[in-house]
Amino acid sequence: MTLRVVEWSTGTVGRHAIAGIDARPDLELVGVWVSSPDKVGKDAGELAGLGRDLGVVATDDRDALIALRPDCIVHTAMTDDRVMESIEDLIVFVENGINVVSSGPVVLQFPQGILPDSLLERIAAAGRTGGASLHVNGIDPGFANDVLPLSLTSLSQRIDEVRCQEIADYSTYYQPVVMRDLFGFGQPMDTTPLLLSPGILSMGWGSVVRQIAAGLGLSLDEPLVERVERVEADRDYSTVSVEIPKGTMAALRFEVAGQVDGVDRVVLEHYTRTHADQCPDWPTPHEGDGCYRIAISGEPEMTVEFGHHGENGDHNVSGMIVTAMRLVNSVAAVVDAKPGLVTALDLPLITGRGLVARG
């Protein structure tokens, strides 16, 4: 059965989602939403850089797209700077009977213990009303710190700690708002960026820690523990998103730890550089400019490093691709899922069915 899909945004993730929807034989692209007036009326193939038209014209008319009654919306619009507004958008889609796979807000990856029960009930009620499901995922938060580490724990005899790391150079990551306003790169060291405001790390990545704990049957101490190390630029740096003058923030390490009786048991850790030669004492990928590393302490000790890069060699481009494709490849499973919010713990094995190259 072919599922009718609307792509919601055509930015750094959305353009790759369009390409992925077009590549899957079981999906049909029927609509595209854009926020920029300059993109209205343009063909989806052009916006995705495919070099050919797909016969689907972009629009900023949300009601017209809802009226198409698609089976699913692949939602990849920016949500980091409008969390509550975007949750309201997703509720409207689900209430209207449209299943949704979304890259954000990331807190919805596993919001139990983070968002108020009243909001979770609204999402559940929307699912019951529309008979539709909502799944938020991607790569991080997402596959690299839900399915991948939990799958690895199936090999354990004893688990002392599960540690999920992102180790990456963000110099080619194009998201000016994220880099400057959320992370604080290029800002004075005495400035507190949004990401480092009290409780924000636990909201953004606490869902990762809590979902792994749920998968392992752990009851965590409250609140989660946040640890931060900020690094000052030793010279001027330039990235595709923001300039980083000497003396401003240039690198960031943070942890969100879930403890049991005061002992770290599940840890999400990020090492974020804005140039490859920064912080030589920090871990580095075995290969390339970025990776996800899962380390499970216990019996046996296990480590897995997951790296990726696009055909042009850039791991930040491929990061957008894997985020998009985790959503696109989940569409059929989410359409078949129970109504309401579904997490990675609720879904079957997701594969790239139909995507093996031919010829």
In a nutshell, what does this entry contain?
This protein is of the alpha/beta class and 359 residues long. 27% of the residues lie in helices and 26% in strands. The protein has 11 helices and 15 strands.
Give the tally of β-strands: 15
Helix content: 25-40%
Alpha carbon gyration radius: 20 Å
As residue ranges, the low-confidence spans are none
DSSP helical segment count: 11
Read across the widest sheet, the strand sequence of neighbours is 3-2-1-4-5-6-15
Q: Strand pairing plus helix content: what structural class?
A: alpha/beta
Approximately what portion of the residues adopt beta-strand conformation?
A: 25-35%
Order of helices and strands: EHEHEHEHEHEHEHHHEEEEEEEHHE
Shape: globular
What does the average pLDDT come to? 95
Major sheet summary line: 7 strands, parallel
Q: Give the CA-CA distance, first to last residue.
A: 24 Å
Q: Topology, please?
A:
Layout: E1 3-8, H1 14-23, E2 27-33, H2 44-47, E3 58-59, H3 62-67, E4 72-75, H4 83-95, E5 99-102, H5 117-130, E6 133-136, H6 147-153, E7 158-169, H7 176-183, H8 200-204, H9 206-216, E8 225-232, E9 237-238, E10 243-244, E11 249-260, E12 263-273, E13 290-299, E14 302-307, H10 315-328, H11 331-336, E15 340-341
Parallel strand pairs: 1-2, 1-4, 2-3, 4-5, 5-6, 6-15, 7-12
Antiparallel strand pairs: 7-13, 8-11, 9-10, 11-12, 13-14
Helix pairs in contact: 1-10, 4-5
